[in-house]
Amino acid sequence: DELLVDLDDDWVLEARQAHRERVGELLVALGETAEAAGDLEAAVTYARRRLELDPVSEDAARVLMRRLAESGDRAAAVAAYEAFRGVLQRELGLAPSGKTRALVEQLRAERRAPDVDVRKLPLPHALAHGTQTPLVGRGGALGALRAAWRRAGAGSAAVVTVEGEAGSGKTRLILELAEEVRAADAIVLAGRCTEDSVVAFAPLTEALRPYVARSATALPDWVARELSRLLPELEPDAGPAEGEPQDARHRLFDAVAATIGHAASGAPVLLIVEDLHWGYRATLGMLAHVIRTLAWA
User: Fold this and answer.
1) Is the pTM of this model over 0.70?
2) CA-CA distance, 230 to 287, in Å (whole number)?
3) pLDDT tens, 90-126?
4) Angle in degrees, CA 114, 230, 258, rounded to 5
5) 67 φ/ψ angles, rounded to the nearest 5 degrees
6) Cα–Cα distance between 15 and 66 in angstroms, integer?
7) Which of 2, 39, 237, 241 has its CA 20 to 30 A from that of 19?
């Protein structure tokens, strides 16, 4: 973290800057070591921290983009570029350099070449905050989840709500099921609502991005076109939605349902939306549409 944040003397500012530079050098070294060892997950984590430390560093942005792409998540790499471009414009009034733009164009050209079995993806980032402590005293609840999953696996779509006070172990319970079904080659999609989110549909965008990054070429053109409103890396130059707003929203909802249905055509799908009580009305509407569509299918 920042050094001596409660002080603002000149010597503190100099020491703080020196400390920040040393932390940056350490993150570079740690990231390179992790990448050389083949631990791309850790390498990406260090790259993210380095860019957070210096949000206008083009080198840090390119390293993060490259590592995300090497880990198989080209969509996230392109999204990282878009976020960096926004920060650079907002903070310095500048556009990314030709070198950075060339990298993102390369990633966009490669984004429709999936080479990873979607059933072997790591658990979604939305579940990463779940603790790995043993699951104790939740046998009944876990049994109910397993029973619902068996029904879904047999072709009968199921919806389950997990309720409880904060810290009662809801995420840990869900994580247990997610790990079990992923081990059986199911596809796990997950996103979460946050109390301070300002983006509608954020949990479903988060849930779909890893799958779409590897399956975009297999999706119908109309689905990919509509999804680009949630995932701009699919079609960065797409114009505004056509027609009346309610019609455009309905097409988007249909595209999300079609994407999840496409995933389910090859393997059972577990879709997890955490902290739904913080979801926007629009998010709840999209989720309800998806549930109705898939249940009727």
Assistant:
1) no
2) 14
3) 888 988 998 998 888 888 766 544 444 555 566 777 6
4) 65
5) -70, -35
6) 32
7) 39
